[in-house]
Write a structure and sequence with these properties.
Two copies of one chain form a homodimer. With 357 residues, chain A is an alpha/beta fold. Chain A has ten helices and 19 strands. Chain A has helices at 2-9, 45-53, 78-84, 105-111, 122-128, 130-138, 168-179, 188-194, 268-277, 289-297; strands at residues 22-27, 30-36, 61-64, 89-92, 115-118, 142-150, 154-157, 183-187, 213-217, 236-241, 254-259, 261-262, 265-266, 282-285, 303-309, 311-312, 317-319, 333-343, 346-353. In chain A, strands 11-10-9-8-14-6-15-19-18 form a nine-stranded mixed β-sheet, with helices on both faces. In chain A, helix 3 (78-84) packs parallel to helix 4 (105-111). Chain A is elongated. The relative contact order of chain A is 0.13. At the A-B interface, helix 10, strand 16, strand 18 and strand 19 of A face helix 10, strand 16, strand 18 and strand 19 of B. Strand 16 (311-312) of chain A pairs antiparallel with strand 18 of chain B, so a sheet runs across the interface.
Chain lengths: 357, 357
């Protein structure tokens, strides 16, 4: 199963909005076939593994990171394929949270007399597809805020100067974060100040042509038609409120959508629901303290990824989050550190917000 | 030598102002004696090791973390003791930076026909006694700023509320930092706001009765006579400017010393020199952003120890350093991370300031 999970990860940049899935077929202690799901519309992991195994699939045990599908979607159901190939046992890491018509792959397999087992390395499998799980079960993507900061928590000088606090390796790592996200979100303030591209442009990342949807929170539709991202491959979603005149954007890659307001600004929660409805599993927020702080105060952030530079910038600087409503220690947002590692000369800290608070 | 260094460390809380020294005597591949320097005025590491070895010191090799002394101080010179015991070889990690009368222990040993070798694990030995080395060579102690902060760099809420950002394990660790420091420095602002004790009070730390000198930077002598630290064992040094009336402090454990002014405040550099002259190897700064930022801007800080809590406190907070003069990225103070470890649920980051800038 560990191998199946590693295979699944190979779909990290390409499988979404589908989940990442890996499958290993073992017959008489030999791996006879393996596969992973590479891209929506293409064959599922199980089909790749069955093809590789050929006749040796008969009597084999299949290790699959996600319950095989039961539905006729863009590809035929994998449960049937496993049955037809004569697999004798199926071990599944986690159930599929996405069950449309009540039929479960596991039930179909069991009904066909195949031995099924669920739960091996379940937490690793769930973590791998937490964006997909969030979207399917909560109708919300997994929201990750990325920050580049000094060790004393500054993301820029007060003048706005921020290029570069972190090093080239950290910035390259951000490309990977973007590539595994269905959408990258920022605020109009960042667009006006920095004119960011928010695209995946690293030569060593193969996304199969996928670019994350660029999402700009822009209540009053101040987005300039000359913004760099509007001229790049991929789509841009401009989120505003009210009924603005969006005719100018017809010629660009951008779509302008009006959302309900929350305290006079775009209701980000509504935006996230819209993104989930559009099949976005993971949202990467690369924003200034205004939008990041707003998301934090509203409890909309699942995870923080901080690239922490080994430097002190001091007090004449801009902080990570603007949080006017957090005034006492009781308001603090507590985290669980899930990963700390060195990226070039910077430290990447990954932490999940504790939801029980 | 690795064992000798570990032995030396056992003097961490008690040896200062003397350096930590360890010694291991090896005869025919057997450890025949070992020792460390525990306390000023008591026997040096070599003497302990020679006593333990007895006759088996004859023909032995001595591994010593610091060049054996040549001077008649509170104890007789160790070089002579090694010669008299018949040691045949002496391997030393680092030379002694403290040479009073021009005579070197290594020279005395070599003159007596003993084989001497210098440099084994030298960098570890130097790091172990960097406070002592700083004091002897630069007439300045090693200055370490300790901070307890959230992951977004806040040390308190704007209201001053800060108890507690970090956990009990981190606070216990601070006790160890204090215990290996000759002085703990703070500003009058912190005294007036928090009335800290700044003493070592952990039952599991044996300092042999030593307490770090408490140093309060207090330009206008606003120190209250009722301050907690004035009633505790150990001494307090109140650093002011001008010629204040300090008669009231005669009845306390405090000494009031007037220093030259620097931009209208106490010249902290002069205070550090005074501390070195008093035999302080290591200063721990536990201060608010005013004093910490001032020390940072003046380049007086050697090391940062941040206890980073897994929480976000947001913008309505106080930052680590108040640094009005640092206004562009070029003013940043860059660090080399030397250690990162988990202390309870917090992360302790130790970093040295890069001096080349």
């Amino acid at each position: 199963m560990a191998r199946a999970l590693r295979l699944a990860e190979r779909g990290r940049y390409t499988a979404h909005p589908n989940p990442m899935v890996g499958c290993v077929l073992v017959n008489e202690d030999q791996v006879v076939g393996e596969g992973f799901h590479a891209k929506t519309g293409e064959a599922h992991a199980e089909v790749h593994a069955l093809r590789a195994a050929g006749e040796r699939a008969r009597g084999a045990t299949a290790y699959v990171t996600l319950e095989p599908c039961a539905h006729h979607g863009k590809t035929p159901p994998c449960s049937n394929a496993l049955i037809e190939a004569g697999v004798s046992k199926v071990i599944v890491a986690m159930r599929d949270p996405f069950v449309t018509d009540g039929k479960r792959g596991l039930q179909i397999l069991a009904d066909a007399g195949i031995s099924v087992d669920v739960g091996l390395m379940q937490s690793a499998a769930t973590a791998l597809n937490r964006g997909f799980v969030n979207r399917v079960t909560l109708q919300r993507p997994w929201v990750r805020v990325k920050l580049a900061a000094s060790i004393d928590g500054a993301i820029a000088m007060a003048s706005g100067e921020s290029q570069w606090i972190t090093g080239a390796a950290a910035r390259a790592d951000v490309q990977r974060l973007r590539a595994c996200s269905g959408a990258v979100m920022t605020g109009i303030g960042t667009v006006l100040a920095d004119d960011p591209s928010l695209n995946v442009r690293a030569a060593d990342i193969e996304t199969g042509g996928l670019q994350p949807l660029r999402v700009v929170i822009d209540s009053r539709l101040r987005m300039p038609l000359a913004a760099s991202m509007l001229a790049l491959p991929g789509r841009t979603l401009i989120c505003c409120t009210g009924s603005p005149d969006a005719r100018d954007f017809k010629k660009t890659n951008a779509e302008v959508v009006s959302f309900s307001a929350h305290d006079g600004r775009v209701d980000v929660d509504a935006v996230l629901q819209e993104l989930a409805a559009r099949g976005v599993n993971d949202v990467l927020v690369e924003a200034g303290p205004g939008l990041a702080g707003h998301c934090l105060e509203r409890g909309l952030v699942d995870e923080l990824v901080i690239y922490q530079a080994p430097s002190v910038l001091g007090s004449q600087t801009i902080r990570m989050f603007d949080t006017p409503a957090m005034t006492s220690l009781a308001d603090r947002k507590s985290l669980t550190i899930t990963d700390v590692r060195r990226i070039g000369s910077d430290t990447r800290i990954t932490a999940a917000f504790n939801k029980s608070e």
